[in-house]
Each structure stands twice: as C-alpha cells, then as structure tokens.
Amino acid sequence: MKEIKLTKRQDEILQIVRTNGPITGKQIAEKLSLTRAALRPDLAILTMSGNLDARPRVGYFYNHDFEVKQQAEKFLHQKVSDFKAHPIVVEKSTSVYDAIVQLFLEDVGTLYAVDHDGHLAGVISRKDLLRTAIGNKDLQGLPVSVIMTRMPNIITINPDETLLEAAKKMISNHIDSLPVVKEIGQDMNTYLLVGRITKTTITRAYLEIMDQKLG
Ligand code: ADP
What we know:
This protein has helices at 8-20, 25-31, 36-49, 64-76, 80-83, 96-106, 126-135, 163-173, 199-214; strands at 52-55, 59-62, 89-91, 110-114, 120-125, 149-150, 177-183, 191-198. It is α+β, with helices and mostly antiparallel strands. The strands form three sheets. A four-stranded mixed β-sheet has the order 3-4-5-6. The longest helix is centred in the C-terminal third of the chain and has 16 residues, at 199-214. The structure holds adenosine-5'-diphosphate (ADP). Residues 109-110, 123, 125-128, 149, 153-155, 175-179 line the site of adenosine-5'-diphosphate.
C-alpha cells in the first residue's frame, strides 16, 4: 500500500467527513464555500485512494479501516536505526556475579559481551544467568564467556532493516532482543555493536506511531 500525499484541501475534506459523515458532496462544498464541481476531483482522489467511501444517495463516509491499515503499515516499515536503544555491554571476561549486578543496575533483561576489540562476542540473558546461579557457588570466579550464547549463533539485525524484520526474528527464534550491528569489512561474523532492539522497543514504536494519529 502506497501512502499518497494529500493536499491541504483534501485534508480539510477528510476532517469534515470524519466529524460529519455520512455527508453529501454538496454539504461538504458548502462548508468549504466552494462549488460542488470544484470539489469533484478531490473527492474522486480521496475515494479512489481508499480514504473515503462513497454510497449513492447517502454520501461520503470516513474509512477508519483504511486509516488503521495505513498506520500499521507505517509502523512495520520503520527503520531499526530510528528506534534502537543503547546496548548494555560487558567485557567477556566479566564475572557472572558482576554481570548479574549490571543487569539489575541497568534494569535490562539482556547484556552483550564484547571482546578486546569491542566486537560482539556473546549474548547473556536473564535465563543464562539464573541457570548458572542455581548450580554454581563461585559466580565471581566464572567469566560470562563460559555461559553466554556466542558467535556464530547470535541472531543480529542491521540498522537499515525494519521493525517488522526485527519482530519476525525475535518471534521465530524465541528471543527477547536483538543486537543491532554493523558488519566490519569482509570479515564474516565480526560485528560492531551499535544498539539493541527489544520487544519493548517494538511496543513503544507502536504506541508512538498510533499516538501521532490519536493524540
Ligand atoms: P530470557 O533468558 O530473559 O528469557 P531470551 O528469551 O532473550 O531471554 O533468551 C533465551 C536464550 O536465547 C538465552 O540462552 C540467550 O542467551 C539466547 N539469546 C538471546 N538473544 C539472542 C540472540 N539475539 N541471538 C541468539 N541467542 C540469543
């Protein structure tokens, strides 16, 4: 679905139909102090684009379903780069104990481990830490590199991909978040970590887009 750019007058017509519909072309024309003929091209465009529904002898209706679809489409095609959050990073030599403290301090569900060059090396989630904490006494002597999900098993996303792609990757892989990465040179699986996308990011983006229209 391609969103067409409406003119100022077409926007005015939409608002009139939205608040007064069903309304006839003649009544809309009167409200805008225009002739019915002058309005005809705009009404034709708005009807063909799906913004308005026209019923003979009744008048024009505002198409709410069309609006919702348009908003949903807009939401799904947002770029990851516009919504990504700051990633919380630890060195892969960090102890499991310190990682748990970090998780609480930063109020996140997932930490990312990097190697000495700052490249993404692993993912450490709540469950990884809980599982380890259950069976281990020496959490201070155990580095996260032993328990993390590591390359090449990490599911990543690029800043240019869409929120739809991010949502699909999270759902199909049963994970709560994705590291947003940029590939470095030609090296396979060598990534610079530039952000994170979580299920919360997707929910927030959804509310923001809907609020623009509803607010
Ligand atoms: P939680 O443990 O809080 O339920 P997740 O569902 O995200 O969080 O993590 C489940 C498992 O998947 C963990 O073992 C974690 O290391 C792994 N994991 C999390 N994110 C990713 C990712 N982007 N790529 C690969 N594995 C991941």
